[in-house]
Specification:
Helices cover about 40% and strands about 15% of the residues. The protein is of the alpha+beta class and about 450 residues long. Strand 4 and strand 5 form a beta hairpin. Helix 1 crosses helix 8, helix 9 runs antiparallel to helix 10 and helix 12 packs across helix 13. The longest helix is centred in the middle third of the chain and has 24 residues. The structure holds glycine and manganese (II) ion (MN) (2 copies). The site of one manganese (II) ion has 5 residues, from loops. One manganese (II) ion binds next to loops.
């Protein structure tokens, strides 16, 4: 846990920004897998964690903005519970550690909210992403469940996003702890990616590394020789010489900040000539994008720059033709790079995505571009000091997409489909790092994880 003052200062600022009414923040509950006592590993809601620091299930908090009071709601364990769970710290004591003076049993929450609502006071809550919390809010506030999302408080969403977007030095320290776990996971994976090894052996080893270091993975790892499937969840392929494996994985720090790193590994140690060429193009696009990040730069322009670098590189190897800027303007790059360049990262890997992507990555003036590829860009607005963003360009040869667009002769002024055809089994390359926007530019966070062709080959052939 951070020092008490961190949490009290965060809540003070939140009260000031929301200005009036009552703020209701719900922590996550236990989430059963197949029967009530067999639960998924507990993951606290990130906003609750941000303002209250308490990493236990079934808590709720009310902040009365007008009166300046705060109360945590939860139930202490009974003797019966202790038999199964062991002794737990009483809520009153936990509350004191995060600077909250008042606590109450869960059942009092409904009464407190009813009182506020009868007096016509605004009750601000966030849009829930878990059905149990959606139903709880509906019950607490007397709304039909289907109305809950639209009744969520825009004022509260905007206040939370503004605050969580700018990371403090102590938060950066946590992200770098997560990245030190990523270093271990990525380098172990490079050494393990040998012919005959099954992908799941590597995915399992990475989960084991995180667990042995006392932390968890931040998301289901992508470890696949079919890296052309952007979020490939399967780990059952046997790797063979000549394959390339995309390893997109991340860990959570002890205080649950994420890392999110991708490396692409030549199975057996050496990239082929073609793989070197495509890898070098992605590498150049990533380095160019990182170099362009500084306060005030719009991330959509960094995305565009990366797309142009990708297309320029693909032209060198004969896959694209014509002017790269014009090709990107037309959208031709999306045959190879179908997604966005990156996203904010913090307590969530895709930070605050549950609050609404557009609140996080867009503004009134900078609206989402609905075109294919651009529509998946999670972050477009100008970056500011303290923002942490991922930069993750890639080149993906997706046979289904190639077939479809070739048949339609789509963008054929910019794409050499005959040449593309010879790459249809290539797979994909992605390179991803986590970047802090500083006062003057940017910094790649964490220990340097092998990334150049020489560095990756050295470990992969070790
Ligand atoms: N790991 C998913 C992503 O890179 O956004
Ligand atoms: Mn990733
Ligand atoms: Mn990412």
């Amino acid at each position: 846990m951070f020092p008490t003052e961190t949490y009290t200062a965060r809540r003070r600022r939140l009260r000031k920004q929301v200005a009036s009414g009552v703020i209701l923040l719900l922590g996550n509950g236990p989430s059963p897998v197949n029967y009530p006592d067999n639960c998924y590993p507990f993951r606290q809601d990130s906003t609750f964690l941000y303002f209250f620091g308490l990493d236990e299930p079934a808590l709720a908090a009310v902040i009365d903005v007008d009166e300046g009071t705060e109360c945590l709601f939860g139930d202490d364990v009974t003797v019966d519970d202790v038999i199964w769970t062991g002794p737990q710290t009483p809520l009153r004591e936990e509350a004191r550690r995060v600077g909250v003076a008042q606590t109450a049993p869960s059942q009092d929450l409904a009464f407190v909210l009813e009182k506020a609502s009868k007096r016509g006071r605004a009750i601000h809550f966030l849009p829930p992403y878990r059905p149990d919390l959606l139903l709880w809010i509906a019950e607490l506030l007397g709304f039909p469940p289907e109305a809950v999302d639209e009744l969520a408080s825009e004022t509260l969403i905007r206040a939370v996003v503004a605050q969580r977007s700018v990371k403090s030095p102590e938060e950066i320290e946590q992200i770098e702890l997560a990245l030190s776990v990523s270093y271990q996971m990525q380098t172990a994976a490079m050494k393990m990616a040998k012919p005959g090894v099954v992908e799941r052996e590597v995915a399992g080893a990475m989960a084991g590394i995180a667990m042995a270091l006392g932390v968890r993975l931040a998301f289901e790892p992508i470890f696949s020789i079919h890296g052309e499937t952007l979020h490939n969840p399967f780990h059952n392929n046997v790797m063979k010489a000549g394959d390339i494996a995309v390893n997109d994985s991340g860990a959570e720090s002890p205080l649950r900040y994420a890392s999110d790193v991708t490396r692409t590994i030549p199975v057996g140690g050496q990239f082929t000539q073609r793989q070197r060429e495509i890898y070098s193009i992605v590498f150049d696009a990533q380095e160019s994008a990182i170099a362009a990040i500084r306060p005030g730069v719009e991330f959509r322009d960094v995305h565009r720059l990366a797309c142009v670098r990708l297309v320029a590189g693909l032209k060198e190897v004969g896959l694209t033709k014509g002017d790269p800027e014009e090709a990107v303007e037309a959208g031709a790059h999306t045959l190879f790079f179908q997604c966005g360049l990156g996203h904010m990262m913090g307590l969530d890997v895709h930070d605050m995505e549950g609050l609404g992507e557009d609140y996080v990555g867009y503004t009134e003036a900078i609206r989402r571009n609905p075109a294919f590829g651009w529509s998946s860009l999670r972050l477009a607005k100008a970056v500011e000091p303290g923002h942490v963003v991922t930069v993750e360009p890639g080149i993906y040869f997706i046979p289904t997409l190639i077939d479809r667009w070739k048949a339609e002769q789509k963008y054929d002024a910019f794409i050499d489909y005959a040449k593309v055809e010879t790459y249809r089994d290539f797979g994909g390359v992605r390179i991803e790092d986590d970047i802090l926007v500083t006062d003057t530019g940017s910094r790649v966070l964490g220990p340097p994880i092998p990334k150049t062709i020489a560095e990756v080959e050295a470990l992969a052939s070790a």
